[in-house]
Amino acid sequence: MGYKVRLDVFEGPFDLLVYLIESARMSIYDIKVAEITTQYLKYIEEMQQMNVAVSSEFMVLAAELIDLKSKMLLPRAADPESGEAAEDPRTDLTMRILEYKKFKIASEMLREGEQANFHIYEKPQEDISQYTESPDEYLKLDIDQFVNAFNSFLQKKKKIEDIKRRYERIERQRISAEHRMQFIQSLFAADPDKKILFGDMVQDRTDRYDIALSFSSMLEMIKQRRLKAEQTRLFGDITVTATDKIGEAITHESGSDEAANE
Predict the structure, then answer these.
(1) Long-range own/partner contacts, residues 181-187 (CB < 8 A, 24 or more apart)
(2) Which terminus of the chain has fewer CB atoms gathered within 10 Å of its CB, N or C?
(3) What predicted TM-score, i.e. pTM, was given to this entire model?
(4) Residue (of 214, 217, 223, 213) closest to 243 by Cα position
């Protein structure tokens, strides 16, 4: 009893036949039967020399190729009744090769799907009837208790919105601190020797956030020795002047953000 032969790249006789046709760069619709048959028989002979028990499938196809080779040597006479040329003897083999390739592609797709499914794990279904079949529960509250609970909900919601608003403000500060330093730098672009009051650096004096942002940006630029500030009296105006480093590229550190956030 023969067994299924599988070598490095061949699995079955048609796998070998397709390999030989593609290696010879032949068209499946115009197979050079004599050349392919010679190569096929040579491969069978090499398998036998290696003491490999050749499957009967290989031998059957070899016999079919030899038969087809002999038919190709005979002239093909036209049908005397219809006048049409006789059918090409290779037609049946061509159709079988096309069918084989179609199923081989499908098998490769199924094999890839099987490999992909090996990495998928499913969770078994759980019994959740105790949650879905429970009767509705109603709150037993009088009108005063309900009003107090609703007011408590509104207060918590307002608190959450205030925290969210403050958080968004802090995030804007982290983004705009460098922009404010660039704005201050632009004030000295035309005349680096002029003196500017701190109030002129604040774009919106009615917004405490904007004042804190301008002040922290000024401190950061003083730290980087880009600016000098002077205040002659307590709570008096702060006079700001530029140094020779005012024109250098702005570098932004997190320290100014933390000062403004506080």
Answers:
(1) 181/217, 181/220, 181/221, 181/250, 181/252, 181/256, 182/250, 184/214, 184/217, 184/218, 184/221, 184/227, 185/221, 185/226, 185/246, 185/247, 185/250
(2) N
(3) 0.36
(4) 223
Q: Give the CATH architecture of domain 166-261.
A: Orthogonal Bundle (1.10)
Pairing of strands 239-242, 227-230: antiparallel
Tell me the C-alpha distance between 234 and 222, whole Å.
19
Q: Where in the chain is the domain with CATH 1.10.10.580?
A: 166-261
Does the pLDDT at position 261 exceed 50? Answer: no
Q: Is 242 helix (H, G, I), strand (E, B) or coil?
A: strand
Residue 245 CB contacts under 8 Å (≥ 6 apart), including other chains: 224, 225, 226
Q: Please identify which residue in the block is written with the tokens 């909900």.
A: 153
| φ, ψ for residue 38, nearest 5 deg | -60, -45
CB 191 within 8 A of CB 208: no
Residue 247 to residue 261: CA distance in whole angstroms: 27
134-171 pLDDT, tens digit each:
656 566 667 888 888 888 889 988 888 877 776 666 65
Q: Which residues contact 189 (CB under 8 A, 6 or more apart)?
A: none
Query: Which carries the bigger pLDDT value, residue 122 or residue 249?
Result: 122
